[in-house]
Design goal:
The protein has 375 residues and is an alpha+beta fold. The protein folds into 2 domains: 16-238, Hypothetical protein, domain 2 (Endonuclease III, domain 1, Orthogonal Bundle); 250-374, Nucleoside Triphosphate Pyrophosphohydrolase (Alpha-Beta Complex), CATH 3.90.79.10. It is 44% helix and 14% strand. The protein contains 15 helices and 7 strands. Strands 1, 2, 3, 4, 5, 6 and 7 form a 7-stranded mixed sheet that branches. Helix 1 (20-37) crosses helix 11 (196-209). The longest helix is centred in the N-terminal third of the chain and has 18 residues, at 20-37.
């Protein structure tokens, strides 16, 4: 009986990248599958480099099924690189609100300003040129250079890593430097020199829709004949190697609900802090043994130099960040000493409800504001 394309006559799978004809067949099969099965996504409608760049930055932290509204909102607000370069940090953060990792939005603005000032508003068309911009690393440079400019640089995101680890039966941790280098070399061998952008997107699409983290749909995979994990393992889904997750620390935080007439007191986070440049209800993290009212009184003395009388707890929400989780308590309060002046400052303001909608808040405090408004 004839051997299958990915095995020897004895049934043992071989490295599919060792044979040039196999590599060509893999490319052809994957590109044909992508042409027939790719999802109709907003950021695939226009390969203008600025739009590709925006989409790739967003895709690093947002699931495809959630990103469409964010992408369209951002481009409605900043349709060109020049519009982004000319915007204030607060305007950019507001357009980014809800996506998280706000440093990426700040870096996008910085990169846009650099391109506007040094390159007449034209993004670099090479991998190396893109790497010189703030906030652009190897993945983004490879994705943008290949999709927007047809440069043959392989991408290596989570989806591509999963596909390659299974295709080549790599059972070591892909986060190791040596394994990452092996995966990049595999991508360089595989990538289509004629259609590098489509090929990179095809690998990412395959990982997202067929070669899923759990229960991969191997029967639908266009490269299943050469996949070593499918041929040699009982469960291809056990690859790639996954290190045990460390438990995320949990913190309790308090936020003060302080009104002056119809306006609400809000504060701005320092630009060099986590969530820098975003607004929030004033407050902070609990100390050991503190209750919400005591934590609020202490943090407002430390932050704003004011004394407050605290009332009842109004709401409580749980929220998760990438490296820790919080429980956020909202406590009603009134200022009893050290009342901020009538005017606003760069670090705090009395905001009416319409103004609150215009200011950028992180997701936890926006959820809290929405909850308090409903109450």
């Amino acid at each position: 009986m004839a051997a299958s394309p990915g095995s020897t006559a004895q049934g043992r799978a071989v490295n599919p990248l060792e044979d040039a004809h196999t590599v060509v067949a893999l490319r052809r099969g994957l590109l044909q599958w992508y042409a027939e099965n790719k999802r109709p996504l907003a950021w695939r409608e226009n390969k203008e480099p600025y739009r590709v760049w925006v989409s790739e930055i967003m895709l690093q932290q947002t699931r495809v099924d959630q990103m469409d509204a964010y992408y369209r909102r951002f481009l409605d607000r900043f349709p060109t690189l020049g519009d982004l370069a000319g915007a204030s940090e607060e305007q950019v953060l507001k357009a980014w609100e809800g996506l998280g990792y706000y440093a990426r939005a700040r870096n996008m603005r910085r990169a846009a300003q650099q391109v506007a000032e040094q390159r007449a508003g034209v993004l670099p068309d090479t991998y190396e040129g893109l790497l010189d911009l703030p906030g652009i690393g190897p993945y983004t440079a490879a994705a943008v250079s290949s999709i927007a400019f047809d440069r043959p640089h392989p991408v290596l995101d989570g989806n591509v890593t999963r596909v390659l680890c299974r295709l080549l039966r790599i059972e070591e941790d892909p986060r190791k430097t040596s394994i990452r280098a092996r995966l990049i070399a595999a991508g360089e061998t595989l990538i289509s020199p004629e259609h590098p952008g489509d090929f990179n997107q095809a690998l990412m699409e395959l990982g997202a829709s067929v070669c899923a983290p759990l229960n991969p749909a191997c029967e639908l995979c266009p490269i299943r004949l050469w996949c070593r994990a499918r041929q040699e393992l009982d469960d291809p889904g056990r690859l790639p190697f996954k290190a045990p997750k460390k438990p995320r620390p949990h913190h309790r935080e308090v936020a003060g609900f302080i009104r002056r007439g119809s306006a609400l007191l809000v504060t701005k986070r320092p630009s060099d802090a986590m969530l820098g440049g975003l607004w929030e209800l004033p407050g902070g993290r609990f100390m050991r043994g503190e209750h919400p009212p005591a934590a609020l009184r202490r943090t407002l003395r430390e932050q704003l130099g004011i004394a407050v009388q605290t009332g009842r707890q109004l709401a409580e929400i749980a929220h998760g960040y990438s490296h820790f989780t919080i429980t956020l308590h909202a406590v009603a309060a009134s200022i009893s000493e050290g009342d901020p002046h009538a005017g606003n400052s760069a670090d705090w303001c009395w905001a009416e409800s319409t103004e609150l909608n215009e200011l950028p808040f992180d997701r936890a405090h926006r959820r809290l504001l929405d909850l308090l408004a409903s109450v």
